Amino acid sequence: MSTRSNDQGRAYEYVCLITLHHEINRHRRAVIELNSSYAAARRAWDAIDDSLHSLLAQSAYAAVDELFDLEPLIIEPSDDTLTLKLQRDTEGELGDVRDILIVRCAIKWEIGLSIKHNHFAVKHSRLSKNLDFGEKWFGIPCSVQYWRDISPVFQRLQEAKNDNCRWSDIGNKDLDVYRPILTAFINEVKRCNAQHREVPRKMVEYLLGEYDFYKVISVDSQRTTQIHTYNTHGTLNRSAKNARPKRQVPIASLPTRIISIDFKPNSNTTVELYMDNGWQFSFRIHNASTMVETSLKFDIQIIGMPTSIMVINCTWR
């Protein structure tokens, strides 16, 4: 993700937070936790122009009323204080993809929002000569065979890095770099899955986080804000004392089987993963810099979801 896109993403997190705070306080007391993530988001907001301010604010407001309908505990009249918090980016690396937390400590309740501006990517994980993706993704260390398979490719990249090479200097990198790395990745996932039945479930929990959440996506070109309901553990959509949710959010079943994992047809850079219960992902590998590095980055997208994950389109006013 470019610096510009990253800054706009932080600015969108900020305006979603501020909009929630303003609208919740129409119903009950809410406070914002002032932490380093809040400060970074505020700086990003201050750095964008007025036209983008207006656009992002419209997007944020479009989602708020729908969130209140889904989660009446947010605006339930009560003497306790509701806290809004922006999480650190490092939480995503630890299995929590939620950017904004909405918390009521008095009743031990919280929900989270993952905030996206004009993109649908799930994660941007890396593969490298030392990074054990099996351990990180599903708690199963990669095999000796995996390290043998990737070693020659990353050795070549190390030599190119030592020579201050650019990625554009590496000829035929699709076949000589990306495809062998992805082949090793595919084979390792298959090996782990053959020996550990929990791999499909843990794969999704790694990619989407260990907590239920709503994904809020601003689609500026369509003047629409999408809300996706990721309710795999059944913690979303609870009733308040005075109100039930106006829209019911189903519980989505996690996968139990990998049906297929292989290269996308006619591609050397993208792997497609198909699992039961409707889960489908693509993994596109790419270099994330001009100069050669000894790691490669995934752009991971959901290409198919269970029908029990709702997509709610909120049109801007």
Features:
single chain; alpha+beta; 13 strands; seven-stranded mixed sheet; 317 residues; six-stranded antiparallel sheet
**Unreliable segments (pLDDT under 50, ≥5 consecutive)?**
none
Order of helices and strands: HEHHEHEEEEHHHHEEEEEEE
Total strands: the figure is 13
Termini separation comes to: 29 Å
Topology summary:
Elements: H1 3-24, E1 30-32, H2 36-47, H3 50-70, E2 82-86, H4 90-93, E3 100-104, E4 109-117, E5 121-123, E6 126-128, H5 133-138, H6 144-162, H7 173-195, H8 199-208, E7 213-219, E8 224-230, E9 258-263, E10 270-275, E11 280-286, E12 295-304, E13 311-315
Parallel strand pairs: 1-2, 4-7
Antiparallel strand pairs: 2-3, 3-4, 5-12, 6-12, 7-8, 8-13, 9-10, 10-11, 11-12
Descriptive report:
37% of the residues lie in helices and 24% in strands. The radius of gyration is 21 Å and the shape is globular. The chain starts with a helix and ends with a strand. It has helices spanning 3-24, 36-47, 50-70, 90-93, 133-138, 144-162, 173-195, 199-208; strands at residues 30-32, 82-86, 100-104, 109-117, 121-123, 126-128, 213-219, 224-230, 258-263, 270-275, 280-286, 295-304, 311-315. The model has no long low-confidence stretch (mean pLDDT 94). Strand 10 and strand 11 form a beta hairpin. The chain is α+β, with helices and mostly antiparallel strands and 317 residues long. 32% of the residues are buried. It contains 8 helices and 13 strands. Helix 1 crosses helix 2 and helix 1 (3-24) packs across helix 3. A 7-stranded mixed β-sheet has the order 1-2-3-4-7-8-13, with helices on one face. Strands 5, 6, 9, 10, 11 and 12 form a 6-stranded antiparallel β-sheet that branches.
